[in-house]
Amino acid sequence: MPNQIETNPKAPFSIAFSGHTLKYEIECIFKIFLPIRKFAFLYDLTALPEDAEEGAVVTLEQQGSQSRFFVRVQYQGQQLEQEHLFPACSPETEKQLCEYRFCCMLYRILEQITDLHPAWGLLTGIRPVKKVQPLLEKGMSREEVCQELHEKYWIAPEKLSLVYDTAMVQQPLLQQTPAHGISLYVSIPFCPTRCSYCSFVSHSIEQAQKLIPGYLEKLCVELEIWGQLVREQGLLVDTVYFGGGTPTALTAVQLGQVLEAVQKNFNLSHLREYCVEAGRPDTITLEKLETLKRFGVNRISVNPQTMQDSVLETIGRKHTTAQTVEAFHMARKAGFENINMDLIAGLPGDTPDGFHDTLNQILALNPDSITVHALTLKRAANLFSEGERQVHNPVEQMVQESMRRLPEHGYAPYYMYRQKNTIDNQENVGYARAGKESLYNILIMDESQSIFGAGCGASTKLVEPCGKITRIHNYKFPYEYIRQFDQLMEKKQQVREICERIREQEKA
Question: Within this chain, do residues 51 and 152 fall inside the same structural domain, yes or no?
Fold first, then answer.
């Protein structure tokens, strides 16, 4: 689809609702076409304010035995509207149906006004693979699955193939998930510098030096508390994942401190995967790699994002392509047989030729998995405030090249997710050689296993057999985490109660 995103967003785009408060999915549809526009939501209005040059009206009116769905969009001097009558339905009791009808109408209008034709069609949400799995459980064939999703969401054939293939790789791996298994996520929220596209709660090592000792001390205490809870509930640690941030921004001694705390407090004999985001090549040393190996880490990421030095400089990465190559070979020599490399399509200053060259260089290194992210304009990232002039790249062309070339080199898609504000409405996909898939990545997207999160910004996700998911969040910032640690640990009682409820459901 052509990249015709607004270059100079004007005043907030007003959306007036009447007869309902169905905001979330409707906003998601608008974000597909207007990813960097801010929105203002108005309620109980059947028309836009007189001074509004652009905006939309989304009205649901009950007319006896019928419901009138009405949509009008004003945008860039154009005005289009649609009206449909359906058998009476209520936004309170039939929320999904009402949302779907509005989304269909809005999508067609916005498609016409913008001349954009998103490959994912109507489909919103983070986890497209979860749309495939129920259909596979019904015994549907590939053709039947793709047909049903196309008819409902208007998804393009290449995306249907991608999501189906991903689901098929995941199926046997998910079936091997142990009963009473959990994953452990450990947050190291520090980086050498902050990248311009980053929205994670991370802090530069230079700015946070004084916080690190205190943070690690509290983190190790939290791991001890988690370990006690895991033992008393009879749980098995299935995967461990160190993220952030850049865990290898710590020194080898500091890394060892946290790794030892994991080893001391958890039985790792059932562990299927132990992954550490080594991340920035300029943080990787032989001493740190040897420390990771000594504690049983069996998967790491060496993340260049791009192999174009000029682009690295533009986005605020302080390492070079040569350092990436050096770090990768160092990891191989240290004995790591499962190495992932992350790339980002659509970085400021990058081009299709540059991305093509990046793929060539990465494929020459022959990593075990390659994750391709489409650039996302997160509001917390510096790029968002700089406007579209910084990110006007043909992201779709880059993503399509990766979709074509990586399978040709033996990499199959094994997990994927989508985000709001992604340029050209693209997706993030992990590709891996057979047997080198990240189990943690699959599990976090599938939401079929509880995850215990340790450290600031970490989220604990408790999955009950009935399908209910409870999320408990740690404080976002290191100073909050340290200062209010005791109050935070009180939340562990809530985790204990939910775990006991899970055991009761399993017995029933």
Answer: no
User: Structural domain of residue 161, as residue ranges?
Assistant: 129-172
212 within a domain of the structure (yes/no): yes
pLDDT for residue 245 is more than 60: yes
What is the band of 385 on the pLDDT scale with cuts at 50, 70, 90? very low
Say what the pLDDT of residue 35 is: 80
Rounded to a whole number, what is the largest CA-CA distance in the chain? 74
The DSSP string of 36-90 is T--EEEEES-SS--TT-SSEEEEEEEEETTEEEEEEEEEETTEEEEEEEEEE---
Number of domains in the chain: 3
Residue 361 half-sphere exposure toward CB, CA atoms < 13 A: 22
Contact 327, 339 (CB under 8 A): no
184 plus 151 within the same structural domain? no
CATH number of residue 224's parent domain: 3.20.20.70
Tell me, what's the pLDDT at 10?
65
Domain-located, residue 496: no
Domain containing 18 — which CATH number?
3.30.160.100
Q: Which two tokens stand for residue 29?
A: 């549809």
Tokens 């069996």 sit on residue: 298
Model confidence at 382, in pLDDT bands (50, 70, 90)? very low
Check whether 389 has a pLDDT greater than 50.
no
Please state, in angstroms and as integers, the Cα–Cα distance from residue 126 to each residue in 161, 174, 295, following that order: 17, 19, 33
Average pLDDT estimate for 168-195: 90
Which residue bears the tokens 């929220």?
Answer: 189
User: Is 487 within the bounds of a domain?
Assistant: no
Provide the pLDDT for residue 391.
40
- Specify whether 354 is located in the same domain as 316: yes
| DSSP at 303 | -
CA atoms within 13 A on the CB side of 38: 10
Q: What are phi and psi of 176, to 5 degrees?
A: -90, 0
Looking at the fold, whether 254 and 152 belong to one and the same domain comes out as no
Do 459 and 467 contact (CB within 8 A), yes or no? Answer: no
Are 189 and 320 in the same domain?
Answer: yes
Residues 160 and 236 placed together within one structural domain of the fold: no
Determine the length of the chain: 508
Same domain, 254 and 301: yes
Token digits for 375?
């650039």
Residues in a beta bridge with 333: none
pLDDT of residue 175: 93
User: Can you say whether the dihedral through the CA atoms of 110, 115, 117, 118 is positive or negative?
Assistant: negative
| 206 lies in the same domain as 166 | no
Angle at Cα 399 formed by Cα 394 and Cα 401, nearest 5°? 100
Residue 478 lies in a domain: no
CB 266 within 8 A of CB 230: yes
**Cα gap 477→201, rounded to integer Å:** 7
Kindly provide the b/e burial profile for residues 238-252, where b requires at least 16 CB atoms within 10 angstroms of the residue's own CB: bbbbbbbbbbbbbbb
Query: Could you give the CA distance from residue 476 to residue 487 in angstroms, rounded to a whole number?
Result: 14
| Residue from 362, 359, 366, 371 nearest 277 by CA | 371
